[in-house]
Write a structure and sequence with these properties.
Two copies of one chain form a homodimer. By secondary structure, chain A is of the alpha+beta class. Helix content of chain A is 28%, strand content 26%. Chain A contains five helices and nine strands, in the order βββαβββαβααββα. In chain A, a hairpin with a 7-residue loop joins strand 8 and strand 9. Chain A is elongated. Chains A and B meet through helix 1 and strand 4 of A and helix 1 and strand 4 of B. The structure holds a DNA duplex (27 and 27 nucleotides).
Chain lengths: 208, 208
DNA sequence: CCAAAAGTGTTCTCCATACACCCATGC
DNA sequence: GCATGGGTGTATGGAGAACACTTTTGG
């Protein structure tokens, strides 16, 4: 099981990578992953791995694809069920390494050469994320609990890799009825105060 | 590995099922499936299984999802990568059983109680097929090489489970530029002759 | 001759897009 | 006072949905 963990900071969209301490690919960066235990489901394994690596429990997590090329692991035949996750880097300070291994966040387009077929997995995860974003509101998981519409739009632009029109974006998101106003404003920046919004957890049912 | 094989005949949309000869679920119907060999990819395993069961080689085949509930197989822990396939029942006469086991085609909504979690797998395959059909032309694989627009529309209506407007359907499909006229007509039925169309294999690139 | 199916255009609505200005705040 | 970013409305074009009649052919 391997997991593509996406996070967002002020530099952009990031992915969590682990530097391997053992052969094969010793010293190379790889996606966090591990073996599914005999008494846990695939989802549970992914969630456990994610918690071990980031300390986070409640995150968006979804199965991506299962990779089964014969030689993807040079040691022996290993099939990997890949997941992808969206985590909130801004509030919890994610300790990116629980164990001795080095772990770090890389820009999704600045990742080093990855071990195994993990570049393919990362690529597919990015495409899936883009695809989902197009037709259903997702990705609030990457933002703080309260966020401005500009932050949300910025996230969309990062993932879709194109600029969006501010007025159209705001109208579409608000009409979709998946976020609601809070009574707070973001302040401190130059410029007017920005209304903070919150994801409506009960809205999931309406969308799907 | 398990495989949901869809076929189309004049009764409707069918799925291929195998009656199990061995415990567990002896005598129950199940999806065709088998174990992935150590020197074949997942796709190859699915294709091999499909050929063993139906004798067909060139079919649409796509990975669906990986099922990993702990108790899905009562004997021991088994994770299954599910695929779905679209085959053409009308031209090749598919021998639905290569080996001793009973095999038969069932209407997708008339299937008996299935072994393991295969009902879930079938359900998800149906939803995936519906989802794909909505936004990209697919499903020609279920029809004869040459087909009329009415046949194609009938297929869409079966999968989507709703009626479609004839004029809108024809316009959309023709504008999508994925099928082309042949020089033949279907005749023999009551009523005027119907132009036969063919799928444009080179059109795949344009769509995806 | 009648039932069945093929083929064909236009209108309307709605959604997506394009586009520009004013105002509040921090420095 | 100025740079930064928040917030707002309208006009246009394109896609999808609704809708009915004529013609051909087999029985």
């Amino acid at each position: 099981m391997d997991c593509v963990v996406f996070g967002l900071d002020d530099e952009g969209l990031k992915v969590l990578l682990i530097q391997r301490g053992l052969a094969p690919f010793e010293g190379k960066w790889a996606l966090p992953g591990g073996f599914v235990r005999v008494n846990e489901t695939l989802d549970e394994a992914a969630r456990r791995e994610l918690e071990e690596e980031t300390g986070l429990r409640k995150v968006f997590l979804e199965q991506l694809y299962t990779f089964g090329a014969v030689d993807r692991d040079p040691r022996e035949r290993v099939v990997s069920v890949a997941y992808y996750a969206l985590v909130n880097l801004s509030e919890h300070h994610v300790h990116a390494a629980t164990d001795a291994r080095d772990a770090a966040w890389f820009g999704v387009h600045d990742a080093p050469t990855l071990a195994f077929d993990h570049a393919d997995i990362l690529q597919m995860a990015l495409e899936r994320l883009r695809g989902k974003l197009r037709y259903q509101p997702i990705g609030f998981e990457l933002l703080p609990k309260k966020f401005t519409l500009s932050q949300l739009q910025h996230l969309y632009e990062l993932v879709l890799e194109r600029e969006l029109d501010k007025r159209n974006f705001r109208r579409r998101i608000l009409e979709a009825d998946v976020i609601e106003e809070t009574e707070n404003y973001r302040t401190g920046q130059v410029g007017p105060r920005a209304m903070l919004y919150r994801y409506r957890p009960d809205a999931v049912a309406e969308v799907t």
